[in-house]
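Worked Example 4.2. Read the sequence first, then its structure tokens.
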Amino acid sequence: MIVVMKVDASSEQMARVITRIESDGYKSHISEGDERTIIGVVGESPTPLKEENYGAMEGVDKVVRISAPYKLASRTFHPADSLVPLNGSKVGGNKVVVIAGPCSVEGRTEIIEAACAVKEAGATALRGGAFKPRTSPYSFQGHGEKGLQWLAEAREMTGLPIVTEVMDPALVPMVCQYADVLQVGARNMQNFTLLNAVGESQHTVLLKRGMSCTIEDMLMAAEYILAHGNMKLILCERGIRTFEKATRNTFDLNAIPVLKRLTHLPVIADPSHAVGYSEYVEPVARAAVAAGADGLIIEVHPNPAEALSDGRQSLTPQRFASMMEQVRRIAEAVGRTA
């Protein structure tokens, strides 16, 4: 349920509504718009919510039930687009942001080289995995904290903020020391303990869609993070598992406009993991921007043939620079910048 306050509602009237919500055993979440303030009522309590009781309070314009199981992620709760700051830009705004870098941090020299290359081509932020969850336990698993330190050094040299995956709730405080954005990977989208931990951190979070998860599943996962008052959340469509074997996954282009209608949260696309082959990354990136994606996350490696992970889907710096030019043209065609 949401309580929509009147335009001229006083702070005292809002405080009384919040007190009533908490006394009924629920949690309140405030969304302040340009003209009105909306108070979300979430949680469970033995005390039933009675719309007429809240509707009769001073300063309340109306009370609206939210039928969707996700409340805070819903546009009913927050009608305007949420904007998440990133390197002087705002994800969800007019600019299409681009996060780029290698799948994994292989070494100090390699990550700095990649960072300088994507910076020159116009990337907004640097991606790179210090902890690498892999299908095989014998594959390269990343350098851990040392990898985070190399990422931080690359940030110092280029000014690019860091986006990196966190896999374990116990590692959230350490990763927060180095990273600007905590990435929750596809395999962890429904790791609810981890979702609670990144929500509590109040750090910016990039949540990837699980490989076999519905859009509603994704929004319910987002709800775990938002429930902690952490509204700095970016959603990422990265392809889903289907019967098709021609690509690594099937890129769900539909998800972008659907998510943009259902939620106020910014939505970016990951063409690299969606298709798994570098020759398809550029056309899918163009399609994602045309469909309304607020950004892209692209794997770029100085020498994909020598990459320790996901080299087959990585672009060279030269191809990434070419892709950026294409993305800029598509963004301009749909009234945006990149």
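Now turn to a second chain, presented in exactly the same format:
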Amino acid sequence: MTADTEDPAGGVFRRREGSREPNGVGEEYAFFYLLSKLAERFTDDINDALVEAGTRQLAAFGYTTGQEGRATEAGLAAMTRVASRGDLPIDLVAYPDILEVDVIQPALNYHGRFRTGGAKLTIDGSPQGKTAWLSQPYHVPPDGREEGYRGYPAVDQATVDQAVDKAFANRWQILTHANGDAAADSLISAIRKARAKYPAVKNRPVLIHGQVLRRNQVEELKALSVFPSLFPMHTFYWGDWHRESVLGPERAEHISPTGWVLAEGMMFGTHHDAPVALPDSMRVLSATVTRITRSGRVLGPEHRVSVLTALKAMTLWPAWQHFEEQHKGSIEVGKVADFVVLSENPLQTPEQNLADIKVLKTIKDDELVYERPTDD
């Protein structure tokens, strides 16, 4: 990477002040370009080891179904190989990048605990990295950006429209990363067109993140039957940063607005976005219930939810998202024996202590796939 290296579409190589020399930071597609150069050197054994280690880590945090939210060709091949050997401890659902993977073959049935669930589209970046695409400027622009900077899209509207149309035409479920409200506007526009063109398609499209959703956009998501998978764990890890620098005091209160979603009578899911953060299920639970930042501030008290609601957002409602609500998501006669043993009952634990609950055992299909070491 040199001063002559151009920024890729949908990404930026940050430069040293006063020159074009790269300073080491790659935003969004610039970062993925660098990552792809590393990944090209990975052997099948390395890729397989990543799949095995990742699913074992998910099991250790109590997950019995995991999701690869933006699969590559090499990743799909590795997941298929590991599944064929019977080495997946949990179910794994992959969503290939609709702009990068040529052949996408979704299925509802697992083979060796693996299946492809649909397709993934990415419209923008992240608020904490100040690359999410907003309708209003960032509170404090990042280095090298002028006042009024609002982030940027990774793809143009025509590409979003084409990707969503392709998914609906094939009856694929599509998961779309849209953090900023301008990105959400882009997705809503594309889905509205697709709904009008394919009114009989029931593919349960999903908005991933939606951290800067406006109140009126939540209403539009409901009208279009879009399932929001939100990121309330952000309130803990980056809540103070959002308030002080990213969005400012007022907008930061509504990061991942679960309260607005519930007010519309909607289901929602929560996630961790590993490796952005560890897939710590109890941290997800705690943040969804308390919205306490690392400085101890409650960020958006109106968006706090009950423990039971937060548990549904990690179990029963994501099972619906994956078209698996008939056999997963709750412990009932006729459903698979997927459950975890916790050190405490979250329904009886003080809310401020939820993050300290430990996963003791994870059972998948009536099989023990993880047990916490006794000295840990």
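Notes for the reader: The chain has 13 helices and 13 strands. The two ends are 43 Å apart (CA to CA).
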